Every structure is written in structure tokens, then in C-alpha cells.
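FORM 7B: Structural annotation worksheet

SECTION A. Query
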Amino acid sequence: MQGFPYIMDFNTLLLIDPDKGSTKSFILRCIILVGEITIPKLKSMLKRDFNKSISYQAIRKILLELIYSGVVIKNDKVNSFAINKVWVLKLRESLTVIEKSLSKHKIKSLSEDTSQIKFKNLNDLGFFVLFGLENKYFSSSKDDETFMYVEHLWIPFSNLDRRNTVMNLFKENKVKILTKYSSIGDKILLSWYKKCTKVKLNVKMKSSCQYIVRGNTVIQIYMDKELKNKMNQLYSFKSIIKLNLFQELIDMTNKNYNIEVIITKNKKIAEQIREDMKKYL
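SECTION B. Predicted structure
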């Protein structure tokens, strides 16, 4: 179901609970038990196993709702339905981010409006930002724009469905990106980013950190010097013959570095940084 926004719906997850007695809950559990099922077989299973007499039209309506939310996919060739593996993957990733963020060793409250989180690597940071945009953590208003100031354009996920999710979220959240550098790597990535957002390379803002600003939320990202140097090397394609570029990028994304993130909810600070960024666009 490319094109639909796969918004993580934790209410759907709760439907799997055997204590839930809604029609949607029974249908969801049937699909999970069988793996892939047609509506006639689903109707029969609901009657046989759960003593639920549900019309074909009612089942189809619920299935369409589950498809729209990204939980279920349809196999048009055999007119059957199955759990969307992308939804399962995203659910697992979202729960991992929540678990890490809630850990007392990972998150620290600096004040009523400010929190500090430590991420191990770029992979965790990327999922956190994706999770925040997807679940309206930074701002729930559809009218708010999102401004990012980063040293280099971040490398999109290798998984096609995940890349499409990022693209949809960037469009929905009106993301605009400024980069400090204009390396070969940034110029290569620019063609992909242009499909979903506005980008300005080689912007020298006076800042010791990287920023994400949306609504009244300001996210300051402080990366380890070693990580910055590694990104500069790879994005410049220096010694490219000696490097296994693909493996180097994987290592850079997953290697543990010290990435500190400070999240502040402050309207005046957000407006000031946002106005500074707008000058370059």
C-alpha cells in the first residue's frame, strides 16, 4: 500500500489482547493465526472459532480500515489479506525507541521544559526523529513547518517502504533542510531529498550543534568529534579506492558514538532559531 502514511497505531496493537471483544479485534486475531486469509474463510472462521456472525460487507469495511492504517495488506491475485510486515517492523522499531528513551540511563530531565537524551548511534537517532515526526511528538499541528540544520544530509533507509515513509513524513511535516557542508556525498543525496523537501547546501550558521525545530520544540543534536570526522571523510569520498564504501557507511551508522540530544519546549527560542534558518532559504 505505497502512498498511505503508515502512522503507528498503538490502539491496533492493543486489539491483539485476547480480552478485547470488538469485531476488529477478532478479525485481526484470525489473520494473525492463519497468516493469509480470504473474506469467505475469515467469515467462516469468525463463526466457527469465536461464534461471531459478521456480514461480508462489515468484514470488508474493517479490512479496508486496517489496510488504510498500514496494518493489513491485500493480495489482489487471490483476493486474500495478511498482516503487513512493514507495520510489524515499524512497531518493533517504535517500541525499541520508546524503551531506550524511557530508560533512566538514557533520558534526563534538565527542567520542566527541557530533557536530555543520549543515543548510541546514528541509527537510533534516525529512528527517534522518524518516530517523533510520525507520532506528532514534536508538534501536532499540521500547519507547522519543520526546519533542520545538519552538517550533512542523512542517508535514507535502504528499505524501500521505509524510504517512502520518510518521504511522506517530510512532505506532511513541511520539512526544510539546511546543511553546513556541500560535499560530494551531499550533492549525490540532494537528488533524493528534492523529491520531498527543500534543501540548501553550504550554510554556515553560527552554531555548535545541529538543530531540528518544529512548532515550539527545539532539538539540539551534539555529535561526537570522531563521528563528525568520519562523516566528513566518507562524504568527501577521500581515498575512495581504499574504502569499502558500503561497509563503511553501515559501520558509521551502527557504531556506538556519543550523541547527545537536548529537547526544549520554548516558543520564543523556537521562533528565533526558525527565523534565523529562514534567512537562508
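SECTION C. Observations
The mean pLDDT is 82. Residues 104-278 form a domain with the Endonuclease; Chain A fold (CATH 3.30.870).

SECTION D. Sign-off
Analyst initials: ____
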